[in-house]
Amino acid sequence: MAEQMGTMSGAERGHNAQSPTIAEIEVFPVRVPALHTFKFAGGTLAEAGGTTPHVYVRVTDSEGAQGWGEGRPCPGWSSETIETVTSTLRHHVTPALRGLPVHDRFQMHARLDRALGGHPTGQPIARSAIDVAVHDLLAKRANLPLRAFLGGTTDPVDVTLSYTLTDHVAEEASESVTKQRAAGYRHFNFKTSNRNVEDIAVGAAVRDAAGSEAFVWADANQSLRVDQARYLARGLEEAGVNLLEQPLIGDAQHAMAQLRQATILPLTLDEACVSATDYYRYVAEGLIDYLVIKVNRSGGIWPSVQQLGVALAARQGLILSGLCETLLNRMTGSQLASAYGCTESAALNGGQFLDESGLFPDKDRVEYDGSIHLDDTPGIGIEPNMDAIGDMLDHDLA
């Protein structure tokens, strides 16, 4: 009998009747006001005076414990929209997960795979929102900050932010760096414009203004051909830039191999690295040097931990990024990354571009002086204000 039990899955054996289960999943599609415009090669993440789409999820278990997650749809970056994320969570994810023991994250993702097209990369932003909410709930039940629940420390941790530059003129970029250094930022990343000469000049200006100790990285968001990428990489290498992110279209592994031969500038992926399998393919061929930790892109914490396992085994560098998300996801990424010792140069830029004053009235407690400060609060460490969610609710989807 013992041998037979050893070969059975958790679903086949059944779960302890005392285990709390997922009882309720609430979905809140909201529009958050944008303070400044944020454009990149694939589109626009924020338009000054407009709003940005976010979907908050609150999971409640059968004993009343709750956890929060955030999905940040961006049609110019991925195929998901606020409408698809909301519909998927309400009509496909909720029926699939209701009644599941809340601790069973392996079975949760198995059910998500079946509900979202039979593949682990299906609808990662919707998947991430529910995964993060469950992890927040579990960490709270354990009375641990999320990083400690994931194997990290309960000691306070500071995650140093990287300021995202949208300047495409060298002089303006230099002025922005000088201003933001005075505000406490030490590291800088910038979006390329697909004009190589100008982008190389911006890289050199940022390096000069930021100083030799700063980590400076360029993000091309899949916008370049191989010949353009070769030229840009060589110029950025000479300018002293530390990293080039996703220069080529996401499915062009063969082209990345050509680029790798042309430069010693460290390279990394973003849009091409949804799953651990995606990431492993590039690492195994020696084509990249860093893992970009991005919880929304990769379907949540559980799949991101799988990527981190590959990165650690391959001795890759780690950096943290986001999708112009609100403080809930910035804190989530910081908790995850810090559990693995990644606390520098985090490109979590939602605080630059979004008006979160209503959603997170205590934001100044955790984000200031160019850093996110993680204390011993259980779970992610922050929750959105329900009154503000009500004010920002997208009533067409509510």
What would you note in describing this structure?
The chain has 398 residues and is α/β, with parallel strands linked by helices. The chain has two domains: 2-143, 2-Layer Sandwich (Enolase-like, domain 1), CATH 3.30.390; 149-384, TIM Barrel (Alpha-Beta Barrel), CATH 3.20.20.120. It has 15 helices and 15 strands. The protein has helices at residues 2-6, 10-13, 82-97, 105-115, 124-141, 146-149, 170-182, 196-210, 226-239, 253-262, 276-284, 301-313, 327-339, 350-353, 386-392, and strands at 22-33, 38-40, 43-46, 51-61, 66-71, 157-160, 162-165, 187-191, 216-219, 243-245, 267-268, 290-293, 317-320, 367-368, 371-374. The strands form five sheets. The chain has a five-stranded parallel sheet with strand order 7-8-9-10-11, covered by helices on one side. It has a three-stranded antiparallel sheet with strand order 1-4-5, sandwiched between helices. Strand 12 (290-293), helix 12 (301-313) and strand 13 (317-320) form a beta-alpha-beta unit. It starts with a helix and ends in a 6-residue tail after the last helix. Residues 1-15 have low confidence and may be disordered.
Any key phrases for this structure?
398 residues; alpha/beta; Enolase-like, domain 1; TIM Barrel; 2 domains; five-stranded parallel β-sheet; three-stranded antiparallel β-sheet; 15 strands; 39% helix; 18% strand; globular
